[in-house]
Write a structure and sequence with these properties.
By secondary structure, the chain is of the alpha/beta class. It is about 20% helix and about 30% strand.
């Protein structure tokens, strides 16, 4: 049986270990994909650090996968060997719960997630349900990889922010650097909030179109219409509430966040809103890629070989990245 290289999480809180695993055969409705590139997402970091409950163990992480179809399971139609596809976080939904039946599959009662409850893309090959893959155009797979989660979650959070003219982005990493380009192209004013003192990230944000950039402890020069918090820091929620204008919305774009401290009701009053974003839908993916066909963005990436996955995760944890880390098998 042919084998493949993979990086495997055996237990939360432990480094990933290199392994030789059998190449899995595709089952009904599945694709076998040769992984061309796989982005390293903060959610992977939460998984490895034990902050997400009940992962499949052992598990191959990774859910920002750009792959080439290497095998078709029974029943797959409309895709061909050699075709390029992207695999997102949402791997499967039941299709019958009340959320799936009301076009809210991101809230499915029994979902599966790529690189969390089923194996992902920190490997040379992976399996994916064909229904949850997105056809991708030709291009640099490393540049495309961050779009499969940072782009998708950023886009869903962006939609939840409404028609905000002045948009604040807290945490200027993989998602924010994509979203800043989209928002700027659509005539929004982007205000970027970074770790205090991170002048390099602030310069990076201005280069991508932000009209203002400062530390997360700073007050923007004008009240914001909306803010999106990508950094997993609960203390930023009251800060964002203080920064948004009356009727403004604060969108929380992460799957995990440290506890939100108590705050006075007066900063929520005047019809300010706090809301979370959970996962994504396939419609989000179609919407994002349709938008990118009209408004291309340039992703900033740092390439790592597959075996350096732990190094890439450490760089993300320590805030040493501008843009996104991407593993290349």
């Amino acid at each position: 049986m042919p084998s493949m290289r993979a990086m495997v999480l055996g237990a939360p809180g432990r480094p990933l270990r290199p392994a030789e695993l059998p190449v899995p055969p595709p089952g009904p409705g599945e694709l076998l994909l040769k992984v061309l590139a796989c982005g390293v997402c903060r959610t992977d970091l939460h998984l490895v650090d034990g902050e997400l409950p009940d992962p499949k163990l052992p598990v191959v992480p990774g859910h920002e996968i750009v792959g080439e179809v290497a095998g078709l399971g029974p029943g797959v139609e409309g895709l061909a060997i050699g075709q390029r596809v992207g695999v997102p976080w949402l791997a499967w939904t039941c299709g019958v719960c009340r959320f799936c039946r009301s076009d809210r599959e991101n809230l499915c009662d029994q979902p599966l997630f790529t690189g969390y409850t089923r194996d992902g893309g920190y490997a040379e090959f992976t399996l994916a349900d064909a229904r949850y893959c997105f056809p991708l155009p030709a291009g640099d797979p490393v540049a495309q990889a961050p779009l499969l989660c940072a782009g998708l979650i950023g886009y869903r959070a962006y939609r939840m922010a409404g028609e905000a003219k002045r948009l604040g982005l807290y945490g200027f990493g993989a998602a924010a650097h994509i979203l800043a380009q989209i928002a700027t192209a659509e005539g929004r004013e982007v205000y970027a909030f970074t770790r205090p003192g991170d002048m390099a990230a602030q310069a990076f944000a201005r280069r991508l179109g932000a009209v203002w950039a400062g530390g997360s402890d700073a007050v923007p020069p004008l009240p914001l219409d909306a803010a999106i918090v990508f950094a997993p820091v609960g203390a930023l929620v009251p800060a964002a509430l203080r920064a948004v204008d009356k009727g403004g919305v604060v969108v929380l774009g992460g799957i995990h966040m440290s506890d939100i401290p108590s705050f006075p009701y007066r900063i929520l009053w005047e019809e300010r809103v706090v809301r979370s974003v959970a996962n994504l839908t396939r419609a989000d993916g179609l919407g994002l890629f349709a938008k990118l066909a009209r408004t291309p963005v340039a992703t900033e990436t740092v390439r790592f070989p597959l075996e350096a996955a732990n190094e890439a995760l450490a760089a993300l944890r320590e805030g040493r990245l501008q843009g996104a880390a991407v593993l290349v098998p």
